[in-house]
Amino acid sequence: MAEGPDTLLKFPCRFPIKVMGEAHPELLEAVHASIARHVADPDSVSVTQRASSGGNYMGVTITLTAVSQEQLDALYRDLGQCARVRMVL
To answer: Residue 50 belongs to what domain range?
Structure first.
């Protein structure tokens, strides 16, 4: 696919998404559920996590092969709707 008019990215491309939220199992469940809904090959996705120094929050980095800007936009929206998520970058 070629780059779209509203993006500087060339698809497909590897793309990291950072999610910050409450350190709770529901956060990781929501991340994995979002990946399953928006990524055709979930096995190609890398997910790493890191707890905050106080242990109250968790940072999750999702690295995926994005195929379109629409896919990224939908994934960002879906992740942002989780009650445990505080920020998606």
So the answer is: 13-88
Q: Which residue has the tokens 């790493």?
A: 48
Q: Please state the pTM of the whole predicted model.
A: 0.88
Domains contained in the chain, number: 1
Q: What is the pLDDT along the chain (89 residues), one digit of tens a residue?
A: 454 466 789 999 999 999 999 999 999 999 999 999 999 998 889 999 999 999 999 999 999 999 999 999 999 999 999 999 999 99
Contact 8, 39 (CB under 8 A): no
The residue type at 78: D
The rounded distance, in Å, linking the Cα atoms of 43 and 55 is: 28
> Per this entry, what is the length of the chain?
89
- If one counts every other C-beta atom within 10 angstroms of the C-beta of residue 5, the result is 5
